[in-house]
User: Fold this.
Amino acid sequence: MESKCPSCKKKLSLLYMKETCPYCGCDLLNFDYEKRLLEDAKKAESEFEAANRLIEKLVPAFIKKRIKKD
Amino acid sequence: MSVSTEIKQRRYVGIKETLLYGVANGGQCIGYNMIRSQLNLFLIIICGVPSKAVSIMTLVMGIWDAFNDPLMGSIVDKTRTRYGKLRPWLMLVPVPLGASIIAFFAGGEVMKNFTSDGLKILYMCVTYFVWEFFYTIGDIPFWGLSAAISPNPDDRSRVIKSARLISGIIGGLPGIVINLFMDFSNSALSKVFLVMGIFAGTVGMFLFSLSGFCTKERIVQTNNEPKLLDSFRYLLRNKPILLLTVSSVLSTIESIGDTFNQIYYKLSLGLASLSLLAGIPGTLSGWLTYAIMSKLEKKYSSKQIVIRVTLISVAARTLIFLLGAKHYTNPAVIVPLLAVQGVVTSVYGSIKSVIPTKMVADTVDYMEWKEGDRNEGTAFSILTFVGKLTGSLSTSIAAAIFPIIGLTQVGEDMVLAEGGDVNTRFWLWALVTCIPSILGLVALIPYLLYDLEGEKLKAIQDDLAKRHLSLSNNASQNMKGE
Assistant:
């Protein structure tokens, strides 16, 4: 849950619903959209990498060999 | 590669968020499946409400949905908050929705004290209406979120698959638990339903609330709130979604086979529980389909997938009909054939539960590109409404077919009128195999006219990504400039 204004960094109440910051008037939903998307992408990629490593450990070696052959 | 194309191609929704979206749908489905599948048993047998009153209430509620769903959709589209326009509803609605589920299933205990049918009917109508109302408030933003969770269509597809798969597993549990309680518990059924209602209203709704608290809306929304009627106007100008809606309504005919399935097993094969045996391979293949669907999506467009899978399904079901045409009362031949058909049907069903939903998300992009405003709420309200409508329509069509093929209803059971001119058992065989899917081919006609795919869709989504970026850059620069 987002609790700070991304522009002025002031704390926002969880129950504050308006889309603009009460302190600086920043558009809370769209401000630094690209930067926030990039952060989400990094987080998602690290989760997918961790899942791939886990699958790599769990899949038996003979199946991996077969997949590589194909 | 341009920044906008890069934005569209990255993955933003991690595994945790994808799974939680699916678990939330599972929690939502516990209460929904309990009410939808046990409605008659609970209200008529346990609560003692007259069956006519239950039929009239469900009919009236079906008509009410036609207004309620799009209205709720446009209210969602008007919502503007710092959490987005969909998530606030998903954070708030689980509490009243949970309370309404508990109130509905408390009916068995509460109505014990009612002496008049009028009071029972009043309690039933009020609790059912309140449940339906809050369910709609939760369901439309939930599916709308699948279009707003990411600018990347692959992310959207993954969350839809997660929701359909996990809700299929979790949502089926209450039916099994209730049946076990009915067979092996000494408690009164009204108490069993109350306990299950409390479970669905608390645990189920806690899980459902995760869709509001553990997800994000990642599409830039404009600040101008559309007027209530604007959303309806946009919808009428949205040709792709109108085509998808027409196709969904026409595909009602495909589901009439479900109504005849149990009757066929009972009257032609002599044992209704054989359907469980024939259904096992289908259940497993349905789950596996979700795993291989992304490979299909890489190779074909959504439209191509739907058309190809439908044609393959029709061909397979027609072949099964022909193979069993002389053996339709012999379980040794028919059960394996229906098990194969179960595999085909579940693969088809899994694909049809994901791809058209993903296409609705594409139409939301198209509409934003064309009109400047996103209308996830109204677009997905059509999807939820048509889902409810087709359920009632297919039951009505099946009921109209009963007398034509020589079936009559005696009490709760269907009886075969022996010695007539019609070979009822043969018609039942055709109705559980090829007839619904052949007639359902008509639902492909709108797909032939659907052109929101390939390069056109890619260009629209690239353009939207650019627009979102400039909108957000403006918002950021305005602040930084000050």
